[in-house]
Amino acid sequence: MSTNDPNPNLRLGWEEWVKLPELGLPALRAKVDTGARTSALHATDIETFGPQSAPKVRFTVHPIPGSDDLLIPCSAVIKDRREVISSNGDRELRYVIETNLEIGGDTWPVEVTLTDRRGMALHMLLGRQALNENISIVPSERYCQPELDYSVYATPAIRKTAPNRALRIAVLSREDNYSTRRLVEEGERRGHSVEVIDTTRCYMSINSLAPEIHYDGKRLPRYDAVIPRIGASITQYGTALLRQFETLGTYCVNGSAGITASRDKLHAHQLLARYKIGMPPTAFAASPKDTNALIDIVGGAPLIVKLLESTQGKGVVLAETKKAAESVITAFRGLKANFLVQQFVKEAAGVDIRCLVVGSKVVAAMKRSGADGDFRSNLHLGGSAVSVRITKEERSTAIRAARCFGLGVAGVDLLRSETGPKVLEVNSSPGLEGIEKTSKKDIAALIHDEIEANVRPTPLRNRKALDAPSD
């Protein structure tokens, strides 16, 4: 198989089946037209991205004429932008890319212009520049080379063989912190375009035909993936924005429903209970008459009182006696704050395990200990951490906990109790600094691996499209 020039003995009819493997197009019908100088590929949603020094173009291809059911997202480096005169005399400025063309087992690089060929019987045209002068063209024949089949797009193999195309990724974050910087650095190292979007500066156009997201007065482009790093103070607005991305069909590392549930500690514990995941006995009530009952449900003092929407250990109080517990509960009620009461696991001795789940695996774990005199082990409060080896049961518990929230990336905090691991919290926006430095693992790279594994060509929704006639 040649990768420089086509076989000079190659014989082509006026129509042939071709492959563009670098674009993830394993079957495409093309018109061979020596009257045209430039080759053209049917492309829609054409937009540029990346640095000015090495600009790229993203576009989508509908490889099956007359069917919009299959959408293949592609990207390539821009080689040129030139004016092309079509057969009817229209002038158009088109982006030019270079990609490998495969016909009948021979492969060679060709220049292709991107244009909207909707309505054309064939979605690719091969011009003179793509053809070696020694190639024999037989204008009266079709398919001199082996025929392919559109059914390849419906097989699982299409996902596995999709090229590592450059992605456009948005990180929803209001902070220039370690986690955000690492996600940007790793994505750009892989050749992706990663943009940090301030969640609160976005606004939405909500309608059934063309929902949009705008940012600083401009419509946001189409992203392949979104990594939400939504702060607790803007959970409601942030998840509303994420729902808009979901409506647009963008892959979101963590979905809006999972983030919403994880931020509400009562909802979170109800979900954990529903899926029979171990956690400390927990109680919740609205009436002050139920204070003693709450304390009894969790086994009496010492116990933990938590605000429902607390983060980083704030709003979490240890009551060592029943009288202290009654005082704390009364104080929280006086502030009209929603809280829950939870059993204090003495044997944990102020130590918890943070398991970082990416996809369906625990990729790193660390043991966190509280500062002197503090039962809370949060690193933000002065705690310390060391790498730890977790048990099979702890690993399974962490994965199940992340899965019940539908989170692609989660920090699951466990306590080691006499009766097995107990889940304290599932964090939908875990910080990367502590876990990366403690475990010595590249967590940002693993998150991008998960994104690349999930952002694939959209599968066919209508099987009938495969049965469309090839004429």
TrEMBL record:
Residues 269-452 form the ATP-grasp domain. One of its GO terms (molecular function) is ATP binding. It comes from the Bacteria. GO terms for biological process: SOS response; translation. Its cofactor is Mn(2+); Mg(2+). It holds the Pfam family Rimk_N. Keywords: ATP-binding, Ligase, Magnesium, Manganese, Metal-binding, Nucleotide-binding, Protein biosynthesis, Ribonucleoprotein, Ribosomal protein. The keyword Protein biosynthesis applies. SUPFAM superfamilies: Acid proteases, Glutathione synthetase ATP-binding domain-like. InterPro entries: Asp_endopeptidase, ATP-grasp, ATP-grasp_RimK-type, ATP_grasp_subdomain_1, Peptidase_aspartic_dom_sf, Rimk_N, Rp_bS6_RimK/Lys_biosynth_LsyX. One of its GO terms (cellular component) is cytoplasm. The keyword Flavoprotein does not apply. In the C-terminal section; belongs to the RimK family. NCBIfam families: PRK10446.1 (NF007764), rimK_fam (TIGR00768). This is Probable alpha-L-glutamate ligase. It comes from Tritonibacter horizontis. The lineage of its organism: Bacteria, Pseudomonadati, Pseudomonadota, Alphaproteobacteria, Rhodobacterales. The gene is rimK.
